[in-house]
Specification:
2 helices
Length: about 170
């Protein structure tokens, strides 16, 4: 169980408890496309709210990513290791929940290190929010016919999953 603060509306922030589960899956491309597309190892993360107040829908977030985030398994770490998971999760066409999990295996009891790392992570997070806000402003001001996707090699897993889900949705 993980406790986080969530903005419920413009004026309300609530502390909620989430049950977070994840599973690694291996997804193969369709038989006719196996020469062009590799199989993908993906992580499915599912977060569901525990103890939902009456009158509000429960928080349910799902994320499929090509990154693996072992939140407790350090895989034989070196002396110091920091793991950061950026988990942007679309809510609607114009809103996204942006989770960041930051963990380290050193100075875990040192409040000064914790404060410094929190400040640095907050600064990076703010930069990401500013960039995403600017992108959303540009996209919302652009005619739908003028929007096209530019994909990078690092987008391969997400693109393959979206294409697979799209095809499955068509029947």
């Amino acid at each position: 169980m993980h406790s986080i603060e969530v903005r419920i509306d413009n004026d309300t922030v609530e502390r909620v408890t989430l049950d977070i589960r994840y599973k690694r899956i291996h997804v193969c491309p369709p038989i006719g496309k196996q020469k062009r597309y590799p199989a993908l190892d993906l992580t499915v993360i599912h977060a569901s709210e525990v103890g939902v107040p009456l009158g509000r829908k429960p928080i349910l977030w799902k994320l499929v990513t090509g990154h693996f985030f072992a939140l407790t398994d350090w895989d034989s770490p070196p002396d110091t290791r920091i793991r950061t998971a950026h988990l942007p999760t679309p809510e609607t066409a114009i809103s996204t929940h942006y989770f960041i999990h930051h963990a380290r295996n050193f100075a875990t009891q040192d409040e000064q290190v914790a404060r410094l790392m929190h400040q640095q992570l907050s600064a990076a997070f703010t930069e990401d929010v500013e960039a995403l806000t600017a992108i959303e402003t540009l996209v919302s001001a652009t005619a739908p016919d003028d929007i096209y996707e530019i994909s990078l090699a690092s987008d391969r897993a997400g693109i393959a999953m979206r294409r697979s889900l799209w095809k499955k949705s068509l029947g």
